[in-house]
Design brief:
Order of helices and strands: EHEEHEEEHEEEHEEEHEEHHEHEHEEE
Distance between the termini: 14 Å
Radius of gyration: 22 Å
Structural class: alpha+beta
CATH architecture of the largest domain: 2-Layer Sandwich
Largest sheet: 10 strands, mixed
Strand content: 35-45%
């Protein structure tokens, strides 16, 4: 079973919980996802089954789209509503124009500090392991790209805090909890992510995903590995068969294409992924399916 499956993860489950559930349903061990969702978050989880797990490093690079709710006036240890409250303050009233301008200021390439409660490894340990023991560690900053941030609701005020929603189209590696905290800081306020739904991962969308209950009832659509790719696919010709099956490098001129990655298919089945080595002007095999 070398397929891709799209799951609508419910809030309250970890991404690993979903993987374990699918392992029991399908009776296979090799299952991997292409991007973690926090337990409180819901939405699209792209999972690779069987030898399709070889695609995970490529699909992880895809950009994401989220429906985000931010709460201003409160901060927590985790950057969401699951953590211990660190600060609370009364929120003044903002104009919609002010909020929109602050969101626009974050668009483009920015440097972000991931949250303490995250799975990023530092010195061989995950950050949340340090956080749970109240151990200080330097968190490496990272460059990310914010393609767009668009407010999608009015601002709602209640009990001294306010919330509003926005659509975030972001690059791989973006932490929405950190983004919400940074947006709040730009307004001189504490803030947290109060709700998160992932709508898209690369070419995949939430409206095509199945629930775990539907999977258990065999009401699920499987996608082929070729369906998952966002880079060019070329057919395996007879003169390339031996080269591909043996993982031999292919001169770029023979493929008559110039992309960083190219997939090679035979009879609608993915056979290999090749990567361009510009210095030598050849494509080298990085994944092979025989």
């Amino acid at each position: 079973m070398n397929k891709i499956i799209l799951i609508n993860k419910p809030s309250g489950m970890t991404s690993h919980d979903v993987v374990n559930r699918l392992r029991k349903i399908f009776g296979i061990k090799r299952i991997g996802h292409t991007g973690t969702l926090d337990p409180l978050a819901s939405g699209l989880l792209v999972l690779c089954l069987g030898s399709a797990t070889k695609l995970v490093p490529f699909l992880e690079q895809d950009d994401k789209v989220y429906d985000v709710e931010i709460m201003l006036g409160k901060s927590t240890t985790t950057g969401d509503l699951a953590g211990v409250v660190l600060a609370e303050t009364m929120v003044p009233h903002f104009s919609l124009e002010k909020i929109d301008q602050v969101l626009a200021n974050f668009e483009g390439e920015i440097v972000q500090t991931p949250p303490k409660f995250s799975a990023i490894k530092v010195q061989g340990k995950k950050l949340y392991e340090y956080a749970r023991k109240n151990q200080e560690v330097e968190i490496p900053k990272r460059k990310i790209h914010i393609y767009s941030l668009k407010r999608t609701s009015d601002i709602f005020y209640q009990n001294g805090v306010c919330t509003f929603r926005f659509l975030a189209h972001v690059s791989k590696g973006t932490y929405i909890r950190s983004l919400c905290e940074d947006i709040a800081k730009a307004l001189n306020l504490p803030g947290v992510m109060s709700n998160l739904v992932r709508l898209k991962c690369g070419k995949f969308a939430l409206h095509d995903a199945s629930t775990l209950e539907e999977v258990e009832q065999n009401q699920v659509r499987f996608l082929s590995m070729l369906d998952a790719l966002t880079f060019p696919v070329i057919s395996l010709s007879k003169d390339l068969q031996k080269l591909v099956k043996n993982g031999v490098a292919i001169p770029a001129d023979r493929l008559k294409i110039s992309f960083p990655l190219v997939a090679i298919a035979e009879q609608k089945e993915l056979r290999a992924i090749y990567q361009l080595e510009e210095r030598k002007n050849v494509y080298k095999a990085v994944r092979i399916w025989l």
